Every structure is written in C-alpha cells, then in structure tokens.
Amino acid sequence: MTRNLLNRRQLLITGAAVLSGHTLVRAHNGTVHVTIDKLAFLPAEIQIKAGETVEWTNKDRFAHTATVKGGWDVLIPPGKTATHVATVDDTVDYYCRFHPNMKGRIVISA
Ligand SMILES: [Cu+2]
C-alpha cells in the first residue's frame, strides 16, 4: 500500500514536470546534477551558470541538506531530489547540517 502511494506520488511529480514548459527545458538544459551517496556529494565541486539549477538526488536512507553558512539551505529527504536555482553570487562552499563532514562547492561560471 505504501509503495503504491509512493509510485502515485512519483507519477504526479513527473506529470507536473511535463506540463510545465520551463521545467521541461530545465530538465534537458541548464540543470547540473549532484548525487548524494554514502554521505558524500558527487561530484563535490560543480560549475554552473547563474539562472541554472542544481539538482541533488539523495540515494541515502536518511535526510541531508545543502547548506551555505549565512546563506541558503536546501533539505534533501531520503530517496528524493531537491533543487536550488543558482544566482550570480553563488560561488559558495556548502555542507550538510546533519553531517558537517559532507562538503561541496559551487562555482558560478560566466
Ligand atoms: Cu547529511
């Protein structure tokens, strides 16, 4: 039962992405993917342009965050994805609030 509910939710999310032209464009162009696996951001450093999207996919069984000290904070639940749209001043080091040894870096390129 729980599994069916999860699958249905996935379908709804996918459907919403297909219906939104902007989201569809982003899925093909302008999204940089970071995988979280075994308490690590992979790749640890990414380059991205302002206006593009960072999408984290959490493969672990527990929640992580992408957190910038004094800046933004993105919660990435277990088994889910979460995004952040990069801004011009987003050349930043980030870490996970729950596991401060997890570190990543975003570099804004022209
Ligand atoms: Cu974490």
Give a verbal description of the structure.
- The structure is a single chain.
- Strands 2-1-4-7 form a four-stranded mixed β-sheet. A three-stranded mixed β-sheet has the order 3-9-8, with no helix packed on it. It has a two-stranded antiparallel sheet with strand order 5-6.
- The protein has helices at residues 2-19, 21-28, and strands at residues 31-36, 41-42, 45-48, 53-58, 64-67, 73-76, 81-85, 92-95, 103-108.
- Helices cover 24% and strands 37% of the residues.
- The protein has a single domain (23-109), classed as Cupredoxins -  blue copper proteins (Immunoglobulin-like), CATH 2.60.40.
- The protein starts with a helix and ends with a strand.
- It has 110 residues and is of the alpha/beta class.
- The site of copper (II) ion has 5 residues, from loops.
- Copper (II) ion binds next to loops.
Please describe the structure with a list of short key phrases separated by commas or semicolons:
110 residues, alpha/beta, Immunoglobulin-like, 3-stranded mixed sheet, 2 helices, 9 strands, 24% helix, globular, binds copper (II) ion
- Tally of DSSP β-strands: 9
In CATH, the homologous superfamily goes by the name Cupredoxins -  blue copper proteins
Please tell me what the overall shape is: globular
Question: How do the strands of the widest beta sheet line up side by side?
Answer: 2-1-4-7
**Helical content, roughly?**
10-25%
CATH architecture: Sandwich
List the bound ligands. copper (II) ion
* Overall average residue pLDDT: 84
Total of DSSP H or I helical runs spanning 4+ residues: 2
